[in-house]
Amino acid sequence: MAKRIKIGLIGCGMISGSHINGYLAHPEHAELVAVCDTVDANAKRRHAEVLSGAASRASAAKAEAEKADAAEARERLTARSALLAAYQDTGVKIFGDYNEMLRECELDAISIAAPPFVHEPATVAAANAGKHVFCEKPMARTATEARNMRDACDKAGVKLAYQSGGTCLDATSYAIRNYITSGKLGDVYYGRLTSYRTRGRPNVDMFGFGRWFLNSVYSGGGTIYDTGVYLINRSIYLLGSPQPATISGVAYRGMLPAYTGEEINDVEEHASVFVRFTNGMSFTYENAWSSNMSGQPQGIFIFGSRGAFSNDALFLEKGTWDTDAQGNRRRYQGKLVETPLELPERDFADKFLDFLNACNSDAQPVSNGDMGVKVTEIMSGSLLSAKLGREITVDELYELEALRAEPTPGWPIP
Question: pTM for the full model?
Answer without folding.
Answer: 0.95
